[in-house]
Amino acid sequence: MSTTPSKFVGDIPGHYDNDLGPNIFMDYANPLAYQCSSPVQNAIELAAGTGIVSQKLRDTLPPDAHLEDSELVQTELAAGGSGHVEHETIQLNKTIENLEAFATALVFGNPLIDEIRECGGVSA
User: Fold this and answer.
1) For the packed helices 21-35 and 52-60, what is the interaxial angle rounded to 10 degrees?
2) Phi, psi (5° rounding) for residue 42?
3) What's the rounded Cα separation, in Å, for the pair 58 and 27?
4) pLDDT value at position 69?
5) Are 60 and 31 in contact (CB under 8 A)?
6) What pLDDT, on a 0 to 100 scale, did the predictor assign at position 100?
7) Is 84 left (phi over 0), alpha (psi -120 to 50) or beta?
8) Is 117 helix (H, G, I), strand (E, B) or coil?
9) Which of 29, 50, 100, 110 has the fewest Cβ atoms nearer than 10 Å?
10) Alpha-carbon distance 55 to 48, whole Å?
11) What is the pLDDT of residue 6?
12) In the chain, what are the helix, strand and coil shares in percent, each to the nearest 5?
């Protein structure tokens, strides 16, 4: 196991941004952003990771909407008996347009590549 902390540095972000993240998350980001496109004044994304969904929400929500007061959300949910929570499972069938680029991004587009390199598993 690596003693080096995982970081999105070097060529990792390029592989992730171009071939890994969009293939994994964009199909989910689009319907989520669409559902949030009705008049919204306040929104909070609780599953922020690399930012693909956050960016899509930012681009879709009205300019006067506010993605920022988590304490207020928690207070309001508690005051309302945990609030009204909805869950929807979205099943997608997708086609990966460039399988070679996607496979390369699976290896090189995340910090695991540093551990593989540390073990001498790849030359690039």
Assistant:
1) 30
2) -135, 135
3) 16
4) 66
5) no
6) 92
7) beta
8) helix
9) 100
10) 10
11) 67
12) 50, 0, 50
Alpha helices (runs of H) in 1-124, residue ranges in sequence order: 12-15, 21-35, 52-60, 70-79, 99-108, 112-118
- Which residues, in sequence order, are CB contacts of 29 under 8 Å at separation 6+? 52, 53, 55, 56, 57
The whole-number pLDDT of residue 57 equals 80
Compute mean pLDDT per 10 residues along the chain, 124 residues long, and list them.
64 82 79 73 64 80 72 72 60 84 86 81 65
Q: Which amino acid is at 23?
A: N
Whole-model pTM: value is 0.52
Sorted by sequence, the CB contacts under 8 Å of residue 76 that are 6+ apart come out as 83
Kindly state the tokens that stand for 119. Answer: 């073990």
Tokens of 11: 């060529």
Structure tokens that stand for 2 in this block: 């690596």
Count Cβ neighbours within 10 Å for each residue of 36-57 and write b for 16 or more, e otherwise. beeebeebeeeeeebebbeebb
